[in-house]
Amino acid sequence: MNTRLKALSDWVAEVAKLTQPERIHWCDGSESEYQTFVAEMLESGDLIELNQDNYPGCYLHRSDPNDVARVEHLTYVCTSRQEDAGPNNNWMAPAQAKQMMLDFYAGCMKGRTLYVIPYCMGPLGSPFARYGVELTDSTYVAANMYLMTRMGKPALEHIEQTGSFIKGLHSVGELDPDRRFIMHFPEELTIMSYGSGYGGNALLGKKCHALRIASYQARTEGWLAEHMLIVGIESPEGETSYLACAFPSACGKTNLAMLIPPEHYKGWKVWTLGDDIAWMHLDDEGQLRAVNPEAGYFGVVPGTNRKTNPNAFDTITHDTIFTNVAVTADNDPWWEDKDGGEPVIDWRGRPFDAKKGPAAHPNSRFTVTAKNNPSYSSLAEAPEGVPISALVFGGRRRELAPLVYQAKSWAHGVLVGASVASETTAAATGKVGVVRRDPMAMKPFCGYNFGDYWQHWLSFEERAAKLPEIFHVNWFRRDADGNFLWPGFGENLRVLKWIIDRCEQRVDAVEQPIGYLPKPADIDVEGLDVSPDTLAQLLAVDVSQWSEELAHIDEYLQSFGSRVPEQLLAEHGKVKAAFAD
Ligand code: SAT
Ligand code: MN
User: Fold this and answer.
1) Residues near ligand 1 (Cβ within 6 A)
2) For the structural domain made of 226-296+380-580, what CATH number should be given?
3) What's the whole-model pTM score?
4) Which member of 51, 175, 232, 466 has the lowest number of beta carbons within 10 Å of its beta carbon?
5) Where in the chain is the domain with CATH 3.90.228.20?
């Protein structure tokens, strides 16, 4: 065995006995090892080489057509008491769940390689970094983990020193949707995943470890593991503010994290720290600081182009694994709104026929190291993380939620986060475009009861010296004809600027029952096709729509029974009373 840590070698031996792989490969995390994975997958057909002149180092993976997104209905949190998982999670008794998974795993790796992937989430050696080991029979997963995490020898050395790591066992199995489960055992720091090779179901360092297990640990240890991008906004004066923003999957986190300032924002710079997950701790001075546990991006491809997100576009022109995109006659990758090229073969490998649906799958993805990103922040590797000035929640709402508003206090901000709702997207299986409650964009990812989670959020008020201001944004408002009212993408910097000005107390606002809204004159629309009337619509608070929303929020909070913090209900009561005034 390739480790001196007995707990690890014993576990690998036990899993090998159960799953019976043909061989075991201990990942060292080297570039040459990655190239071996690629060569093997080109040979097996798991990867297809794309045009290497136009897209050097880029490959295409076509997944099973039944395995293209997260499966929330098959994802479970198995705590010993059901109420600890909460109504927000599927639950199964740990012994039952484990037995079911062990039955699936019996002999499942026959003829395959078992990869042992030691990985680190967070900057290596940072006090906030956490370690795990994923065992998988998928070369695609091993290659993706190389791009997405700090994996291999240094992580293993650290694990050997401390003896502590999260155990993640994964097998693609038969890719049978009826034999597919993603199981979490937070009390035992263990993950078991079977029957899917898709990102969030299979790259166990990401949603399974860095959100579900980590959020559970964070609660007991006094920190936060959140579904948030981290971005640094540098003004022409050289002052950088860091924001952490929570939006549900496929609502533009990657775009915001890589934003390019609008033309007349001369001298402004935007730095990416992370595009999906933030781990936040209070430092010795009581300041909230964030690190990104990941080292790469698993982003939505469709819609990415030189206009919407030039940084992302540049990032994925080399050394990228594309999953489920289409290809052109020149063997270039292609997706909807790529601008340029024509699809010839669709994501399933069939000749493209518009009647059969989109060329690229709506949840097609790119996997790429963060080092490819031209705007990658020099502080992204800083062990102590960056100080956070503002937390921003948001969702995809065609109506109701204004472009931006600010919570009146920390506790009110926790209510704003807890009340987030958003239209569903293709990032998870199921119907798209249905509004559902998605508190803090964590509905699919919180590893414990939301009632306890909100209490944990509230508890920061008494422990922190200066907490970030909390905001809510909505880039997705539409008019009666379905047209977006706000241009979005790089222009969102105009809203972020207002947020930063509020944090620095440089601008005042209009008080409304739901929070502080901008004065129209304080949202810069110079050079935009946004009329004063449109801006007024974007900033309007419709009383009758909001009273309906408040009733929904009430009902939702009540569904958590006695676990909902009294303080949260009191905050909600204040908003209702303000509307009644
Ligand atoms: O597949 S992932 O869960 O990693 C992507 C997402 O849905 O956010
Ligand atoms: Mn995500």
Assistant:
1) 70, 199-200, 206-207, 249, 298, 427
2) 3.90.228.20
3) 0.98
4) 466
5) 226-296+380-580
